Amino acid sequence: MELNIDSLYNNKDLSYIDFDLSENIEKINFSGIDYILVSPLRLNGKISKAGRNYLLQADVSFRFLTECGRCLKDVETPVDYKIDAYLMREEYDEDEYEDIDVFDVASTKIELLDIVNSTLIYNMPQKVLCSEDCKGICYECGVDLNNESCKCSDSADYDDIDPRFAKLKELLK
Ligand SMILES: [Zn+2]
Ligand SMILES: [Zn+2]
């Protein structure tokens, strides 16, 4: 997903360029895991001049498959976020850009996918559930409690596991 900003670089009268790009990408790697994309990756926004450098403002959106944190079923999960980043042609003082993303650009060909990859870390959903009231999997026998019930007495929601309770259970054995 390369964007050529030659025109912005060469044309003094041009202050920004718009783009709206979509690319079919099979998977993205995040935290060492490959995730399958189930939609094209879309990136739309603009790049404007900021002195001798550039400001990138774009919306990223795609859908990917991940497991429900309770029952492990695959869930199609949307990701939507904004990138606000400076693209630097010049040397800069990192301390001045603490609150904003900064990327070095060596040419007028901007590899947008690299920028998406480096911004994913702040924007991927942390905990995905197939539904807010997913009952999860029974710790004891492993059945999916959304589909069947089991006789294990104290199967509890993952969120409700109390370590003190588990300890007590251990003592009663
Ligand atoms: Zn679930
Ligand atoms: Zn069970």
Q: How would a textbook summarize the main sheet? A: 5 strands, mixed
Q: What's the helix-strand series? A: EHEEEEEEEEHH
Q: Which percent bin holds the helix content?
A: 10-25%
> Structural class of the secondary structure composition?
mainly beta
By DSSP, the count of extended strands is 9
**Distinct small molecules:** zinc ion
Query: Shape, please?
Result: elongated
Query: How far apart are the termini?
Result: 59 Å
Number of domain modules: 2
Q: Please work out how many helical segments DSSP would assign.
A: 3
Rounded radius of gyration (Å): 23 Å
How would you describe what is shown here?
The protein has 2 domains: 121 residues, no CATH class; 39 residues, no CATH class. 13% of the residues lie in helices and 38% in strands. It is built from 3 helices and 9 strands. The protein has a 5-stranded mixed beta sheet with strand order 2-5-6-7-8, covered by helices on one side. Strand 3 and strand 4 form a beta hairpin. The mean pLDDT is 87. The structure holds zinc ion (2 copies). The site of one zinc ion has 7 residues, from loops.
